[in-house]
Design a protein that fits this description.
Blueprint (H helix, E strand, L loop, with lengths): L5 E3 L24 E3 L21 E2 L22 H17 L17 H8 L8 E3 L2 H9 L2 E3 L2 E8 L5 E8 L4 H4 L7 E5 L2 E2 L5 H5 L3 E12 L2 E14 L1 E3 L4 E9 L2 E8 L9 H16 L3 E5 L8 H11 L2 H5 L3 E7 L1 H10 L5 E3 L11 E6 L6 H9 L4 E6 L7 E4 L1 E2 L6 E3 L1 E6 L15 E2 L3 E3 L9 H11 L10 E3 L3 E5 L13
Parallel strand pairs: 3-27, 14-15, 15-18, 18-19, 19-24
Antiparallel strand pairs: 1-20, 2-11, 4-22, 5-12, 6-7, 6-27, 7-8, 8-9, 8-10, 10-11, 13-14, 16-17, 16-23, 20-23, 21-22, 25-26
Helix pairs in contact: 1-2, 6-7, 7-10
């Protein structure tokens, strides 16, 4: 069988119909925005598209980039041998591996001049996640985290009744230039390189290789919220780097409990497994500290390498579960591929726990979740549920239980990544399209509190539930979201679950 790479996709696709939601005003508004909360948080433009279950809105990418093949022609013109060979590869791999191969339309690939459009035409109507790229090398660099990045994770928000946009910094990688220059979690960015952020330029400005950001402060007065420039500016540059996803950990003592807290933002192993070693080191610290409880923060974790997912789950699970390598999840493919794997390599249908030296032998674990808690994050949580008490605090997760195979062409220039499977835990839990629901819901807010601060409402809720002691920090570290509309960028980074066969 061909060597497969299975990725759990969490990519959020774009809808051109969303353009009507953000019409430019006749006159530009000043940077400071004062807005009255609007109960109509989900505009209805009459379309039926899937959006993340946090109410976020898709913004179209108007960059105007043209990725068509130089050798391709349209209409009745002759199609090059290069394009024909590429289309043949797409057709063959999609026919064998695509999860919905029985629903693929019958299209003559010899008459398709645009390989990207041909691939997209083959997709099942509900498939929003399969992708194609003409740059295999960059595709894999992005997966392993070795890519040009600003060093911080953004959430984008639009002011109601305006085209103005601002960025809330979810976290900053400690090793990044942004961190060295003083950017931190909870910072609000209103301007980049001297320009106000708007619904038409925000992603272009955010993608700048070097940026000077101008920060803002939020103030709540009654039922209105204003965000104004603070006068603080920071300048930093992107770099090709690979960032450790274990960005924060601590041990908190409260009400007689010792609580280990880990913020984990991506499932990556590192080229030499160095990020798994980081996890081992952190859990060794937790073990030496004698923690009684564990809180794992996956609010911003879109997914990643299955080996990292197995490792984290095995560190958390009851010792006998990890040591005996019980099934974490089962993989379900299309009918033909399932039978082929069942005949040739039946064990490949299962993802199992692994014995690890710093296993905490927990009977209960708490996860902080949000709308961007996805794919392999959901796999870890759902996979643990049959074996221990798993508590979720926050908002519903994204709801992605499908996987995709990374299939490069023979020259390793182009790559397709179509949906090829879905997973289920040992109790059969799958198809949670509405996400994994929190046991203890906490409404989403603009959080400026740092990780581990009791002013962070989700962290505080988990600590309070564990210890039975109610503790909260300053109220001005959170701001209700009723004044703003959250949306996703046109290039949400795909972080997926990787399985080698």
């Amino acid at each position: 069988m061909k060597h497969l790479y299975i990725w759990l996709l969490v990519t959020a696709m774009l809808s051109s119909s969303c353009e009507s939601w953000f019409k430019a005003p006749e006159e530009e508004q000043p940077v400071e925005q004062t807005v009255v909360p609007n109960d109509n948080t989900t505009p209805d433009d009459g379309t039926d598209t899937e959006t993340p279950n946090d109410g976020s809105t898709d913004i179209p990418d108007n960059s105007g980039l043209d990725n068509t093949d130089d050798n391709s022609n349209s209409g009745d013109a002759t199609i090059s041998a290069t394009v024909l060979a590429r289309n043949k590869w797409i057709n063959e791999d999609m026919t064998e591996y695509y999860f919905w191969n029985a629903q693929m339309p019958d299209i003559d690939y010899t008459k398709e001049a645009d390989s990207e459009k041909y691939f997209e035409a083959l997709l099942y109507k509900d498939d929003q996640w399969s992708v194609i790229s003409d740059n295999y090398r960059q595709f894999m660099l992005d997966f392993y985290g070795e890519t040009v990045a600003a060093g911080f994770d953004p959430s984008f928000y639009a002011f109601y009744n305006s085209t103005k946009v601002f960025i809330l910094v979810n976290y900053v990688y400690p090793q990044s230039d942004a961190a060295r220059k003083g950017l931190k979690r909870g910072d609000i960015i209103l301007r980049i390189n001297g320009q106000d952020l708007t619904t038409t330029n925000y992603y272009q400005l955010f993608s700048s290789s070097s940026m000077t950001v101008e920060l803002g402060t939020a103030k709540v007065s009654g039922n209105t919220t204003s965000i104004a420039l603070s006068g603080k500016k920071l300048t930093f540059t992107d770099a090709i780097d690979s960032y450790d996803p274990s960005i924060y950990y601590t041990v908190v003592e409260n009400g007689g409990h010792k609580i280990g807290y880990l913020v984990y933002v991506s499932f990556v192993t590192g080229g030499s497994k160095q990020y798994l070693q980081t996890l081992d080191n952190i859990f060794a610290i937790f073990k030496d500290a004698g923690i009684t409880d564990l809180v794992v923060d996956l609010r911003y974790n879109l997914g990643g390498d299955v080996n990292a997912a197995i490792h984290l789950a095995s560190l958390i699970a009851p010792k006998n579960v990890a040591a005996s390598k019980k099934v974490l999840v089962e993989l379900l493919y299309n009918t033909g591929l399932t039978e082929k794997i069942r005949t040739e390599s039946p064990e490949s249908l299962y993802v199992r726990f692994d014995g690890v030296s710093n296993n905490l032998d927990m009977s209960r674990v708490w996860f902080l979740t949000g709308a961007w808690t996805a794919s392999s994050s959901e796999l870890v949580m759902s996979g643990l549920m049959p074996y221990m008490d798993v508590r979720l605090v926050g908002q519903p997760t994204y709801g992605k239980f499908y996987g995709a195979t990374v299939l490069p062409d023979d020259n390793k220039e182009w790559v397709i990544c179509p949906i090829t499977m879905k997973y289920a835990n040992v109790d059969g839990l799958t198809d949670f399209a509405d996400g994994l629901q929190p046991d203890y819901p906490v409404s989403e807010q603009l959080i400026t509190a740092q990780f581990g601060d009791m002013a962070d409402p989700e962290f505080a809720q988990a600590v309070n539930l564990i210890s039975g002691v109610s503790t909260r920090g300053a109220a001005d570290t959170v701001t209700p979201l009723s004044s703003f509309r959250k949306f996703q960028s046109p290039a949400q980074l795909q972080k997926n679950l990787l399985i080698s066969k």
